[in-house]
């Protein structure tokens, strides 16, 4: 089915060019304005069985993920497609990706204040609480909408959007149809008298409805499920306030155990920023807010909306072991962050300045009470539970306190020191019973610039914890010969594991070579089993041992 | 004009909501089945569900039934609930002596297929994997040991069935109470079946210890699974956290098939973990 669409596009383009005698000049002009761009990425791995770390025997031995985006633009017209090849997909990616195809293709043009896209599109209403389609290859996630996406600016300061289509589901479509509209009004742009005011206000509203043909012998299932929301953004001098509220009507799904309680989500963010300092306060409360275009979908499949994460994210290996994944059935989260830069040439700033940042984030359950004395919480075919909006549940999901010191001491030496305290509820976040993790991690990240071309970066990390797999140590050395070569050696050592046989080393040796925008990387080593989260969305990464090759390029 | 068009589109979309009113489930109307008071259980015990896969043309099955009789009648009595599931080609009726159809519609076949039963006789013991493999089901020589192992476990829930039956209309109201003896976070389903005892018919046999060979002409089939109340795999009972001492009472209604002897019919109920398929507790009660 999908190949047919791609074929039709190719035929249309071919016909356009082939009618040449009458259009020779036009074609020449057309070609002059044409631009083609794209990128390619290949990730392949040869797997060794490693029973010590739990890496399974992979029958195919070598697995791969690859894709190429090809985009064409000509003034207001653009078109593109993405070819994908997973034969078979890398371990940790959903096996339903197995295959080859063009699951993403679009044609878009701008005309009379309209931007019309047919085919696949990615878009977001507000912060995404009712609608967000996006792609993240590292998560194996792509919920693009295949259909229509219309955007119009009828008046300065007014943006209206409409979407209508089906979501991508691996190499097919999900069963539901998604329809939606969004309006955003920038008050200061609409009323010219307010253009120069320090107080800037914009408001917006969204409505999204999904339709799914469902007929269940047991449950009375709604075929049309809608979510809607309103948002406001107010800025004044150095302050910025964003607030958004979303509501969803009854949506009994696999994720929420077929309860009929309406869902809602509230997100509030306050930012203050000026040169050298800033702070950020945010809170989020979600209650039964998983919204998918298939009520039987699980995991990250067919999400219509997106729940932002307020948990601190880090790229450092040890604290990243315990990363928070958002809980769509309900959570109460907050983050407070302060950043301060000591000025250059001050006592504490030194010659190059000193940066300090302090971040605290925490997630708890929402309050849940039985709807009556005979019905347990979350009982199927009921309203599920009652929840007091302002009451925080007792079950702590996640807590992260982070202090970061960053300073460039000289032209050749830069130091970053991080401390993380993390409390992690694995039973909730990963779904398997184990005691809450309480961990303390210190990271020392040093960069030595030997000269303009050569640099060495090293990371020393230590995590202390008595729970889970116990304490870890990590060391990494990277050597870069700019702009082409990169080498690294690292080892993660689970020396504190209670089980002596599991006190294992997860070593890794890597090299990369770059030519222009092309990068080729080789890595040999072990990968620990765990979860990988980006923006609160997670996927399970199984243990692996082997040689991986990555090639990426763009043009 | 454009704004008007979008507002109109938004209004149309806004109407695209199906707000469902309670009751949320398409359950049979059980308003004519008043819920009785359930007596307290003084000393809760683990109950064993034996799912016996059998067929009237299976020559080894009388031997299997004999082993189950030993467990049920001689060893554990009330702590054992048996469902004899007649499935596969060996349960198919055929013209002549084996015309009796003891299959429970497609339900037996669905269980047979789901658990990839390799042949009859096989039996599951609360669906626990007991032989160090992924198989739920063992051969007759292992059954006594399996039963002992499962029954040694402490109960985590209690299950009670109370039936209210009208022989004139053959209307059966079954009330099932599940009580949690400990806090529970498993995803649980409840399944309910009708079983029938004392059906007489032909049974193939190759062992004179259990009857005549090659056929036992007046074989008495016991615990024959006849039909379900809420599907082969039951309905969701709970998921998420359930507090200790919580109780759930569900009521079901069914009109008994006129072909069944209602005096020999029982209601079999069991609760199982949907993630592992392991049965936590089972109960049976005569229709009347």
Q: Helices and strands of chain A: which structural class?
A: mainly beta
Helix count of chain A equals 4
Task: Give the oligomeric state of the chains in this entry, treating copies of one chain as homo and distinct chains as hetero.
Answer: heterodimer
Q: Please work out how many helical segments of chain B DSSP would assign.
A: 4
- Class by alpha and beta content of chain B: alpha+beta
Q: Determine the fraction of residues in helical runs of chain A and give it as a percent range.
A: under 10%
Explain briefly what this protein structure is.
The complex is a heterodimer of chains A (555) and B (288). Chain A contains 4 helices and 28 strands.
Layout of helices and strands:
The complex is a heterodimer of chains A (555) and B (288).
Chain A: H1 2-18, H2 20-32, E1 35-47, E2 62-74, E3 77-86, E4 99-111, E5 114-121, E6 135-136, E7 141-142, E8 145-155, E9 158-169, E10 172-186, H3 187-190, E11 199-211, E12 224-236, E13 239-248, E14 263-274, E15 277-287, E16 330-342, E17 354-366, E18 392-408, E19 413-424, H4 426-429, E20 437-449, E21 454-465, E22 472-481, E23 485-493, E24 505-515, E25 518-527, E26 530-534, E27 537-541, E28 544-554
Antiparallel strand pairs in A: 1-2, 1-28, 2-3, 3-4, 4-5, 5-8, 6-7, 8-9, 9-10, 10-11, 11-12, 12-13, 13-14, 14-15, 15-16, 16-17, 17-18, 18-19, 19-20, 20-21, 21-22, 22-23, 23-24, 24-25, 25-28, 26-27
Chain B: H1 2-14, E1 48-54, H2 61-76, E2 80-86, H3 107-114, E3 122-125, E4 137-138, H4 143-151, E5 157-166, E6 171-180, E7 188-196, E8 199-204, E9 215-221, E10 224-228, E11 235-238, E12 247-255, E13 265-273, E14 279-286
Parallel strand pairs in B: 1-2
Antiparallel strand pairs in B: 1-3, 3-4, 5-6, 6-12, 7-10, 7-11, 7-13, 8-9, 13-14
